[in-house]
Here is the input.
Amino acid sequence: MVLGLTAALTAAAIEFLPETLYFPVVEYSTPENIQIALYRNGELEQSSCEQVAGRVATAIRAGCPACKVAERCVRGLDAGHRKVLSREPLAAPSVRMPGGKLTMTFSSVEQQLALGVCRQSEKQSALQPVDQRLHCFAALAAR
Amino acid sequence: MTLPEKLYDAAMRLPYTAFQLFFLVRELSGIRSLIAHHPYAGGDWSFVMTLASRISVILFIAVLLGFYVSRFRPISKYSSWNPKITALLGTLLVYLLLLTPRAPADALWDSLSTVLVLAGSAAAVLAVADLGRSLSIMPEARKLVTGGLYRWIRHPLYLAEEIAIIGFYLQFRSWQTLPILIIHFYFQIRRMDWEEGILAKAFPGYAEYKQRTYRLFPRLY
Here is the structure.
Protein backbone atom coordinates (compact mmCIF):
# COMPACT_ATOMS: atom_id res chain seq x y z
CA MET A 1 0.00 0.00 0.00
CA VAL A 2 2.81 2.42 0.97
CA LEU A 3 4.73 1.53 -2.19
CA GLY A 4 1.66 2.07 -4.35
CA LEU A 5 0.87 5.36 -2.67
CA THR A 6 4.45 6.59 -3.17
CA ALA A 7 4.38 5.62 -6.85
CA ALA A 8 1.01 7.31 -7.33
CA LEU A 9 2.13 10.49 -5.55
CA THR A 10 5.38 10.58 -7.54
CA ALA A 11 3.46 10.28 -10.80
CA ALA A 12 0.99 12.92 -9.62
CA ALA A 13 3.84 15.29 -8.67
CA ILE A 14 5.43 14.94 -12.11
CA GLU A 15 2.10 15.43 -13.82
CA PHE A 16 0.49 18.16 -11.76
CA LEU A 17 3.17 20.14 -9.90
CA PRO A 18 4.44 21.85 -13.08
CA GLU A 19 0.95 23.37 -13.33
CA THR A 20 1.73 25.40 -10.19
CA LEU A 21 5.03 26.74 -11.59
CA TYR A 22 5.97 29.59 -13.92
CA PHE A 23 8.16 29.01 -16.95
CA PRO A 24 10.10 31.83 -18.66
CA VAL A 25 9.97 31.81 -22.46
CA VAL A 26 11.80 34.29 -24.69
CA GLU A 27 11.13 34.25 -28.43
CA TYR A 28 13.05 36.30 -30.96
CA SER A 29 13.59 36.49 -34.68
CA THR A 30 16.83 37.55 -36.32
CA PRO A 31 17.15 39.81 -39.41
CA GLU A 32 17.98 36.56 -41.33
CA ASN A 33 14.47 35.44 -40.43
CA ILE A 34 15.42 32.69 -38.02
CA GLN A 35 12.95 32.18 -35.18
CA ILE A 36 14.56 31.23 -31.92
CA ALA A 37 12.66 30.25 -28.78
CA LEU A 38 14.43 30.01 -25.46
CA TYR A 39 12.91 27.94 -22.62
CA ARG A 40 14.21 27.97 -19.08
CA ASN A 41 13.25 25.62 -16.24
CA GLY A 42 10.48 26.60 -13.84
CA GLU A 43 10.28 29.26 -11.16
CA LEU A 44 8.17 29.07 -8.00
CA GLU A 45 6.86 32.64 -8.25
CA GLN A 46 5.59 34.66 -11.18
CA SER A 47 7.76 37.63 -10.15
CA SER A 48 10.98 35.59 -10.27
CA CYS A 49 9.89 34.15 -13.61
CA GLU A 50 9.37 37.65 -15.00
CA GLN A 51 12.79 38.69 -13.70
CA VAL A 52 14.48 35.75 -15.42
CA ALA A 53 12.62 36.32 -18.70
CA GLY A 54 13.41 40.04 -18.55
CA ARG A 55 17.11 39.43 -17.88
CA VAL A 56 17.38 37.03 -20.81
CA ALA A 57 15.47 39.38 -23.16
CA THR A 58 17.68 42.33 -22.16
CA ALA A 59 20.82 40.30 -22.89
CA ILE A 60 19.46 39.28 -26.31
CA ARG A 61 18.49 42.87 -27.20
CA ALA A 62 21.97 44.04 -26.20
CA GLY A 63 23.65 41.42 -28.38
CA CYS A 64 21.28 41.77 -31.32
CA PRO A 65 19.69 45.22 -31.54
CA ALA A 66 17.98 44.32 -34.85
CA CYS A 67 16.24 41.25 -33.39
CA LYS A 68 12.57 41.31 -32.49
CA VAL A 69 12.35 40.00 -28.92
CA ALA A 70 9.29 39.03 -26.90
CA GLU A 71 9.40 37.55 -23.42
CA ARG A 72 6.62 35.95 -21.40
CA CYS A 73 5.96 33.73 -18.42
CA VAL A 74 3.60 30.81 -18.75
CA ARG A 75 1.94 29.03 -15.87
CA GLY A 76 2.15 25.25 -16.23
CA LEU A 77 3.34 23.21 -19.18
CA ASP A 78 1.24 22.36 -22.21
CA ALA A 79 2.10 19.24 -24.21
CA GLY A 80 4.34 21.15 -26.65
CA HIS A 81 6.27 22.96 -23.93
CA ARG A 82 6.68 19.74 -21.95
CA LYS A 83 8.08 18.02 -25.05
CA VAL A 84 10.60 20.83 -25.61
CA LEU A 85 11.87 20.48 -22.04
CA SER A 86 11.95 16.68 -22.23
CA ARG A 87 14.54 14.54 -24.00
CA GLU A 88 12.18 13.59 -26.81
CA PRO A 89 13.29 14.41 -30.36
CA LEU A 90 11.95 17.71 -31.71
CA ALA A 91 10.87 18.66 -35.23
CA ALA A 92 13.36 21.56 -35.30
CA PRO A 93 17.06 21.81 -34.38
CA SER A 94 17.56 22.55 -30.68
CA VAL A 95 20.25 23.11 -28.09
CA ARG A 96 20.02 21.83 -24.56
CA MET A 97 22.07 22.59 -21.47
CA PRO A 98 23.04 19.55 -19.33
CA GLY A 99 20.32 18.97 -16.75
CA GLY A 100 17.75 20.69 -18.95
CA LYS A 101 18.26 24.12 -17.38
CA LEU A 102 17.95 25.76 -20.78
CA THR A 103 16.55 24.64 -24.12
CA MET A 104 16.47 26.66 -27.36
CA THR A 105 14.74 25.75 -30.59
CA PHE A 106 15.64 27.17 -34.02
CA SER A 107 13.28 27.36 -36.97
CA SER A 108 13.58 28.90 -40.40
CA VAL A 109 12.26 28.30 -43.88
CA GLU A 110 15.81 27.17 -44.61
CA GLN A 111 16.39 24.09 -42.40
CA GLN A 112 20.17 24.13 -42.93
CA LEU A 113 20.39 27.74 -41.77
CA ALA A 114 18.54 26.88 -38.53
CA LEU A 115 20.86 23.90 -37.97
CA GLY A 116 23.89 26.11 -38.66
CA VAL A 117 22.83 28.62 -35.99
CA CYS A 118 22.20 25.74 -33.60
CA ARG A 119 25.75 24.40 -34.14
CA GLN A 120 27.18 27.88 -33.82
CA SER A 121 25.46 28.25 -30.43
CA GLU A 122 27.08 24.99 -29.34
CA LYS A 123 30.52 26.21 -30.44
CA GLN A 124 30.10 29.56 -28.72
CA SER A 125 29.33 27.87 -25.42
CA ALA A 126 32.46 25.68 -25.56
CA LEU A 127 34.37 28.04 -23.27
CA GLN A 128 31.66 27.94 -20.60
CA PRO A 129 31.89 25.59 -17.57
CA VAL A 130 30.87 22.02 -18.48
CA ASP A 131 27.41 22.27 -16.89
CA GLN A 132 26.63 25.40 -18.91
CA ARG A 133 27.74 24.17 -22.32
CA LEU A 134 25.05 23.80 -24.93
CA HIS A 135 24.66 20.71 -27.05
CA CYS A 136 23.08 21.01 -30.48
CA PHE A 137 20.65 18.36 -31.72
CA ALA A 138 19.47 18.19 -35.33
CA ALA A 139 15.74 17.95 -36.04
CA LEU A 140 14.31 14.56 -35.03
CA ALA A 141 17.60 13.52 -33.36
CA ALA A 142 17.52 11.76 -29.99
CA ARG A 143 18.39 14.33 -27.30
CA MET B 1 -12.95 12.76 29.95
CA THR B 2 -14.26 16.21 30.86
CA LEU B 3 -14.21 19.14 28.45
CA PRO B 4 -11.29 20.94 30.17
CA GLU B 5 -9.33 17.66 30.11
CA LYS B 6 -10.10 17.24 26.43
CA LEU B 7 -8.97 20.79 25.71
CA TYR B 8 -5.78 20.30 27.74
CA ASP B 9 -5.07 17.07 25.88
CA ALA B 10 -5.65 18.76 22.51
CA ALA B 11 -3.40 21.67 23.51
CA MET B 12 -0.62 19.26 24.52
CA ARG B 13 -0.74 17.69 21.06
CA LEU B 14 -0.35 21.02 19.35
CA PRO B 15 3.43 21.68 19.65
CA TYR B 16 4.49 18.34 18.15
CA THR B 17 1.75 18.58 15.51
CA ALA B 18 2.90 22.08 14.55
CA PHE B 19 6.50 20.87 14.46
CA GLN B 20 5.64 18.02 12.11
CA LEU B 21 3.43 20.25 9.96
CA PHE B 22 6.33 22.71 9.58
CA PHE B 23 8.52 19.94 8.15
CA LEU B 24 5.70 18.61 5.99
CA VAL B 25 5.19 22.04 4.41
CA ARG B 26 8.94 22.52 4.06
CA GLU B 27 9.35 19.18 2.31
CA LEU B 28 6.38 19.87 0.03
CA SER B 29 7.88 23.20 -0.95
CA GLY B 30 11.21 21.44 -1.56
CA ILE B 31 9.53 19.00 -3.92
CA ARG B 32 7.92 21.86 -5.84
CA SER B 33 11.34 23.45 -6.23
CA LEU B 34 12.82 20.12 -7.33
CA ILE B 35 10.16 19.77 -10.04
CA ALA B 36 10.76 23.39 -11.12
CA HIS B 37 14.37 22.50 -11.82
CA HIS B 38 13.52 19.22 -13.53
CA PRO B 39 10.25 19.83 -15.36
CA TYR B 40 11.26 17.22 -17.96
CA ALA B 41 11.18 14.49 -15.27
CA GLY B 42 9.06 12.00 -17.23
CA GLY B 43 11.76 9.81 -18.77
CA ASP B 44 14.57 10.54 -16.35
CA TRP B 45 14.52 7.53 -13.99
CA SER B 46 17.30 8.80 -11.82
CA PHE B 47 15.27 11.92 -11.11
CA VAL B 48 12.09 9.89 -10.61
CA MET B 49 13.88 7.90 -7.86
CA THR B 50 15.07 11.12 -6.23
CA LEU B 51 11.52 12.44 -6.28
CA ALA B 52 10.10 9.16 -4.94
CA SER B 53 12.58 9.24 -2.05
CA ARG B 54 11.49 12.79 -1.17
CA ILE B 55 7.81 11.80 -1.35
CA SER B 56 8.40 8.76 0.85
CA VAL B 57 9.78 11.12 3.54
CA ILE B 58 6.54 13.11 3.38
CA LEU B 59 4.46 9.95 3.66
CA PHE B 60 6.43 8.80 6.68
CA ILE B 61 5.95 12.12 8.48
CA ALA B 62 2.24 12.11 7.57
CA VAL B 63 1.74 8.57 8.93
CA LEU B 64 3.42 9.43 12.23
CA LEU B 65 1.46 12.64 12.51
CA GLY B 66 -1.88 10.98 11.79
CA PHE B 67 -1.46 8.35 14.49
CA TYR B 68 -0.02 10.83 16.95
CA VAL B 69 -3.04 13.13 16.66
CA SER B 70 -5.49 10.27 17.25
CA ARG B 71 -3.70 8.57 20.20
CA PHE B 72 -5.24 7.65 23.62
CA ARG B 73 -4.53 9.55 26.83
CA PRO B 74 -1.85 7.93 29.05
CA ILE B 75 -2.74 5.98 32.19
CA SER B 76 0.77 6.28 33.66
CA LYS B 77 3.76 8.51 32.99
CA TYR B 78 6.99 9.79 34.55
CA SER B 79 6.84 12.98 36.54
CA SER B 80 10.56 13.81 36.10
CA TRP B 81 11.93 15.68 33.08
CA ASN B 82 14.76 13.32 32.20
CA PRO B 83 12.62 10.74 30.31
CA LYS B 84 10.69 13.50 28.57
CA ILE B 85 13.85 15.27 27.41
CA THR B 86 15.31 11.95 26.24
CA ALA B 87 12.14 11.25 24.25
CA LEU B 88 12.08 14.71 22.74
CA LEU B 89 15.73 14.54 21.71
CA GLY B 90 15.25 11.02 20.34
CA THR B 91 12.30 12.21 18.27
CA LEU B 92 13.36 15.66 17.20
CA LEU B 93 17.14 15.59 16.73
CA VAL B 94 16.90 13.69 13.49
CA TYR B 95 14.87 16.50 11.92
CA LEU B 96 18.07 18.56 11.97
CA LEU B 97 19.04 16.44 8.98
CA LEU B 98 16.21 18.02 7.00
CA LEU B 99 17.71 21.47 7.65
CA THR B 100 21.07 20.55 6.13
CA PRO B 101 21.79 20.52 2.38
CA ARG B 102 21.00 17.28 0.59
CA ALA B 103 23.74 15.43 -1.26
CA PRO B 104 23.64 15.79 -5.06
CA ALA B 105 21.11 13.52 -6.78
CA ASP B 106 22.50 10.04 -7.36
CA ALA B 107 20.39 7.23 -8.77
CA LEU B 108 22.00 4.47 -6.67
CA TRP B 109 21.94 6.24 -3.30
CA ASP B 110 18.50 7.74 -3.95
CA SER B 111 17.10 4.33 -4.93
CA LEU B 112 18.55 2.75 -1.80
CA SER B 113 17.16 5.62 0.27
CA THR B 114 13.71 5.16 -1.28
CA VAL B 115 13.75 1.42 -0.59
CA LEU B 116 14.75 1.95 3.07
CA VAL B 117 12.30 4.81 3.67
CA LEU B 118 9.49 2.84 2.04
CA ALA B 119 10.36 -0.37 3.91
CA GLY B 120 10.60 1.58 7.17
CA SER B 121 7.37 3.45 6.49
CA ALA B 122 5.51 0.26 5.57
CA ALA B 123 6.77 -1.48 8.73
CA ALA B 124 5.90 1.65 10.75
CA VAL B 125 2.35 1.55 9.40
CA LEU B 126 2.06 -2.12 10.46
CA ALA B 127 3.55 -1.40 13.90
CA VAL B 128 1.34 1.63 14.42
CA ALA B 129 -1.69 -0.39 13.31
CA ASP B 130 -0.81 -2.90 16.06
CA LEU B 131 -0.19 -0.09 18.54
CA GLY B 132 -3.32 1.80 17.50
CA ARG B 133 -4.07 4.79 19.67
CA SER B 134 -1.44 3.72 22.23
CA LEU B 135 1.20 5.55 20.18
CA SER B 136 3.17 8.06 22.22
CA ILE B 137 6.19 10.31 21.97
CA MET B 138 6.97 10.50 25.70
CA PRO B 139 7.52 7.30 27.70
CA GLU B 140 3.91 6.82 28.85
CA ALA B 141 1.71 3.78 29.42
CA ARG B 142 -1.60 3.65 27.57
CA LYS B 143 -2.44 0.02 26.82
CA LEU B 144 -0.10 -2.98 26.75
CA VAL B 145 0.19 -4.22 23.19
CA THR B 146 1.73 -7.69 22.76
CA GLY B 147 0.14 -8.81 19.48
CA GLY B 148 1.10 -8.45 15.83
CA LEU B 149 4.73 -7.38 15.37
CA TYR B 150 4.92 -6.86 19.14
CA ARG B 151 4.66 -10.63 19.54
CA TRP B 152 8.30 -10.96 18.39
CA ILE B 153 10.02 -7.74 19.43
CA ARG B 154 9.18 -5.07 21.98
CA HIS B 155 9.90 -2.04 19.82
CA PRO B 156 8.96 -2.72 16.18
CA LEU B 157 7.99 0.91 15.64
CA TYR B 158 11.47 2.08 16.67
CA LEU B 159 13.04 -0.49 14.39
CA ALA B 160 10.83 0.64 11.49
CA GLU B 161 11.56 4.31 12.19
CA GLU B 162 15.30 3.70 12.32
CA ILE B 163 15.22 1.84 8.99
CA ALA B 164 13.41 4.83 7.47
CA ILE B 165 15.76 7.29 9.17
CA ILE B 166 18.81 5.53 7.77
CA GLY B 167 17.03 5.94 4.43
CA PHE B 168 16.62 9.71 5.11
CA TYR B 169 20.27 9.90 6.03
CA LEU B 170 21.29 8.45 2.67
CA GLN B 171 19.77 11.52 1.02
CA PHE B 172 22.30 13.67 2.96
CA ARG B 173 25.17 11.15 3.41
CA SER B 174 27.86 13.40 4.78
CA TRP B 175 30.37 12.98 7.61
CA GLN B 176 29.13 16.26 9.05
CA THR B 177 25.60 14.92 9.54
CA LEU B 178 26.66 11.47 10.79
CA PRO B 179 26.96 12.66 14.45
CA ILE B 180 23.27 13.69 14.31
CA LEU B 181 22.38 10.12 13.40
CA ILE B 182 24.59 8.57 16.08
CA ILE B 183 23.31 10.89 18.84
CA HIS B 184 19.75 10.17 17.66
CA PHE B 185 20.37 6.40 18.00
CA TYR B 186 21.74 6.92 21.52
CA PHE B 187 18.63 8.82 22.65
CA GLN B 188 16.31 6.28 21.03
CA ILE B 189 17.96 3.46 23.03
CA ARG B 190 17.64 5.51 26.21
CA ARG B 191 14.01 6.16 25.27
CA MET B 192 13.36 2.42 25.03
CA ASP B 193 14.84 2.00 28.53
CA TRP B 194 12.46 4.61 29.92
CA GLU B 195 9.48 3.15 28.08
CA GLU B 196 10.15 -0.34 29.35
CA GLY B 197 10.42 1.10 32.87
CA ILE B 198 7.02 2.80 32.80
CA LEU B 199 5.32 -0.17 31.13
CA ALA B 200 6.73 -2.55 33.76
CA LYS B 201 5.38 -0.25 36.44
CA ALA B 202 1.91 0.08 34.86
CA PHE B 203 1.31 -3.48 33.66
CA PRO B 204 2.01 -6.54 35.88
CA GLY B 205 2.26 -8.79 32.81
CA TYR B 206 5.07 -6.74 31.25
CA ALA B 207 7.93 -8.57 33.02
CA GLU B 208 6.81 -11.89 31.55
CA TYR B 209 6.38 -10.28 28.09
CA LYS B 210 9.89 -8.83 28.36
CA GLN B 211 11.27 -12.25 29.28
CA ARG B 212 9.94 -13.92 26.15
CA THR B 213 10.68 -11.19 23.58
CA TYR B 214 13.71 -9.40 22.15
CA ARG B 215 14.04 -5.65 22.11
CA LEU B 216 14.69 -4.95 18.41
CA PHE B 217 16.20 -7.96 16.61
CA PRO B 218 14.89 -11.48 17.26
CA ARG B 219 17.62 -13.69 18.78
CA LEU B 220 20.14 -10.82 18.71
CA TYR B 221 19.10 -7.89 20.89
